[in-house]
Design a protein that fits this description.
Blueprint: H1 2-17, E1 25-28, E2 37-42, E3 56-63, E4 66-72, E5 75-77, E6 80-86, E7 91-100, E8 103-105, E9 112-115, H2 127-134, H3 154-167, H4 169-172, H5 177-188, H6 193-204, H7 209-220, H8 226-239, H9 244-256, H10 260-273, H11 281-286, H12 291-304, H13 308-315, H14 323-337, H15 342-357, H16 372-397, H17 401-415, H18 420-432, H19 436-448, H20 454-468, H21 474-481, H22 484-497, E10 501-502, E11 507-510, E12 515-517, E13 525-531, H23 536-540, H24 542-551, E14 558-564, H25 572-582, E15 589-591, H26 603-612, E16 619-623, E17 628-634, H27 640-655
Parallel strand pairs: 13-14, 14-15
Antiparallel strand pairs: 1-2, 2-6, 3-4, 3-7, 5-6, 7-8, 7-9, 10-17, 11-12, 11-15, 13-16, 16-17
Helix pairs in contact: 2-3, 3-5, 5-6, 5-7, 6-7, 7-8, 9-10, 10-12, 12-13, 12-14, 13-15, 14-15, 14-16, 15-16, 16-17, 16-18, 17-18, 18-19, 22-27, 24-27
Length: 658
């Protein structure tokens, strides 16, 4: 019977993995063994990558029941791509992903896979399991960013794991015991318990820490045996007081603690007893132990106590995956809100940058699913998007101009002039160093992407006047620099999201105490910008809004109201009017109403949020001359000129409404 079953499985596998003469991928030899070098041939004809000249490939190998990820060195000849790849002695299978830019070819999410064979002709250790687990993302043992949408049936997962354990019991029985029991239970429910209990008896024969943790997982699910689980926990904790379970219990204690002071002390104790190690990553991920949270509690405490030296020291030991979050929470927010002067932020910010740089050429384990080339690209993305922009501002504000310019030049390779904030910083630095040729290039390319600032417009105007002797024709010149395709695309998108809804009535007072009533504004196109002093993106959008206000300053039928809402301080009205004056904003401010017994002035905004199912600020509403709401725009994308053009386009569309 066993021989018949083996024969059926081998026949099934041969049919399943026989090379289709029409397949885009060929493996030579067809039935490779671990340790061999194979030749991989790819013909992209008929795939999403057909005709592409920049095709790359990533190979996923299942070795010792763990996934490894590497790049393939493809070479192209007459439209056919080839690569040689040396298999490790412990490899059981390999799968390949081909890419060109953002395009991917994974064989319609079916994978290009080669299962290796041993000397007997059976699949090598890992072959059965890898093929099953790779296509069962819900089990959590597959490859991120590859076949995550695939979820084969529980019976299929069980089939492949059962074959793996049957043919390679020495290698697979322990390491695959948990997913095997999960698949068995999912397929057979309670009737699976006798066999699962045999797995339990097997694991008890070798009570190592990994096996005891596997036992604990099985007791908890699928057996749901609380008595056995609690008893085993006590044994594990007494036997391994600094082991995985102790780490989990300590993390749960600090995570569930609600008192911040106690949480900080527990975090200190946790890191002392369980310092971060990459080797623990798999267990941490499975059990949701998040070291970023632990470090964040300590970093926030350092910020609250203004202990920037402590934050600097802490930054030098952060895991790579934690750096963007902690930089944002402690450096980025403080810099943008001006809660802390940049001179104080400089040292810890630099420490985080140095720490981040240490991972540039060494892929952190949290990003194991990326090939070396993919990690390089992901690193530049993390580095540029999460750290560089704020870091440049801090460096410039503290007089480190050369360092700031070098960083801006590097970040520009990633952003390609699509970040107004970076463009502005780079332009200001080039102007400081009087590098006018390079400055002109930045100004023009930034305007082409419509990612500029008012300051950059002034620099562009100076250059224009310097070249032509006057500013005559400057507006036409600027319009000619913008990418017409972007403008057309944006206009089409705006037309598609235009609405027609009844606007709730409102009455508010302006900064001079004058009553303004919505019903008195019929016949005018109205823009209402809801904002607050504590809202960083609200205030960041004001330079762009100023450009829009100035464009319509001579149009009596267009009015702008900057509605201050959700304030809690006692003197917020005086503070706001001073802020508007200090920044020379030509804005008409309205103050949202504060109802009796309410802590914040948010009466109008609350009603509008309820009426249109929106929340959060900044919120900009454009209302037509009949009092109907036509556009809602949320947030701020970063470009002053882009925002001004977007607002202008919405106003013009709204003005045409009959």
């Amino acid at each position: 019977m066993k021989k018949m079953l083996l024969g059926f499985i081998l026949l099934f596998a041969q049919v399943l993995f026989a090379q289709d003469p029409n397949s885009r991928v060929k493996f030579e030899p067809q039935r490779a063994k671990p340790g061999q070098e194979i030749i991989i041939t790819y013909n992209p004809e008929g795939s999403p990558l057909a005709g592409k000249k920049d095709i790359k490939a990533v190979v996923y190998t299942y070795e010792n029941y763990l996934w490894q990820v590497n790049d393939l060195a493809l070479k192209e000849e007459k439209g056919i791509w080839k690569a040689n790849f040396k298999l490790s002695n412990t490899c059981g299978m390999l799968s390949i992903k081909f890419t060109s830019g953002a395009l991917e070819d994974t064989n319609n999410d079916q994978s290009y896979t080669q299962m290796l064979v041993d000397d007997s002709g059976r699949f090598a250790p890992g072959g059965y399991a890898g093929w099953g687990l790779m296509r069962a993302s819900n089990y959590g043992y597959g490859v991120k960013n590859y076949l995550e949408k695939q979820n084969i049936s529980d019976s299929a997962v069980y089939f492949w794991l059962n074959q793996e354990i049957s043919f390679h019991p020495k290698e697979a029985s322990e390491v695959l015991s948990v997913p095997f029991c999960q698949a068995l239970f999912n397929m057979q429910r309670e009737s699976s318990f006798p066999r699962i209990n045999r797995v339990v008896s097997f694991l008890k024969k070798n009570p190592s820490e990994p096996n005891m943790m596997r036992l604990l997982s099985i007791y908890q699910h699928p057996l749901n045996n609380k008595i056995a689980s609690d008893s085993l926990e006590n044994v594990i904790l007494s036997t391994y007081p600094s082991g995985d379970l102790a780490r989990l219990k300590a993390y749960q204690q600090l995570n569930f603690e609600r008192d911040f002071g106690k949480k900080v002390e527990l975090s200190k104790s946790f890191l002392k007893q369980f310092p971060y190690r990459e080797a623990d990553y798999t267990f941490n991920e499975k059990r949701m132990i998040n070291y970023t949270n632990v470090y964040l509690f300590l970093a926030i405490q350092a910020m609250m106590q203004k202990d920037y030296a402590r934050l600097e020291a802490l930054s030098a030991e952060l895991p790579a995956i934690s750096i963007p979050t902690i930089y944002y929470k402690c450096i980025d927010i403080a810099h943008k809100r001006k809660d802390v002067d940049d001179a104080s932020l400089l040292a810890p910010a630099k420490a985080m940058f140095i720490r981040m740089e240490s991972f540039k050429n060494q892929r952190p384990v949290e990003y194991w699913y990326l090939s070396p080339d993919e990690w390089t690209a992901e690193y530049e993305k993390l580095y540029s998007q999460n750290l560089a922009l704020t870091q440049i501002g801090i460096l410039r504000n503290t007089g480190n101009f050369e360092e700031a310019l070098a960083l801006a030049n590097r970040a520009q390779k990633f952003f390609q002039f699509k970040s107004a904030l970076l463009n502005n910083e780079q332009a200001m630095l080039l102007d400081y160093f009087k590098k006018y040729d390079l400055l002109q290039d930045v100004l023009v390319k930034s305007m082409h992407e419509n990612q500029s600032s008012p300051e950059m417009l002034e620099l562009l105007k100076k250059d224009y006047i310097r070249a032509r002797g006057s500013e005559n024709g400057f507006d036409t010149y600027v319009s000619g620099l913008k990418n017409p395709e972007l403008a057309t695309k944006e206009l089409d998108e705006l037309k598609s999201i235009m609405i027609n809804k009844v606007m709730p009535d409102w009455t508010m007072k302006d900064g001079n105490g004058k009553v303004v009533k919505f019903k008195d504004l019929r016949g005018k196109t109205i823009l209402m910008d809801f904002w607050a002093t504590w809202c960083v993106p609200c205030k960041a959008s004001f330079p762009g809004m100023k450009l829009a206000v100035e464009k319509y300053k001579n149009d009596p039928n267009v009015v702008f109201f900057f509605v201050d809402t959700e304030e809690r301080s006692l003197n917020y009205k005086q503070e706001i009017m001073q802020y508007i004056k200090d920044n020379n904003y030509p804005f008409t401010v309205l103050f949202d109403n504060k109802l009796p017994n309410e802590k914040a002035n948010d009466e109008v905004f609350k009603r509008i949020c309820k009426a249109f199912t929106i929340s959060g600020i900044p919120q900009k509403l454009i209302i037509d001359k009949n009092g109907k709401l036509r556009f809602i725009t949320v947030g701020f994308k970063g470009s002053a000129t882009g925002l001004a053009d977007e607002i202008s386009a919405m106003i013009e569309l709204t003005k045409k409404v009959e």
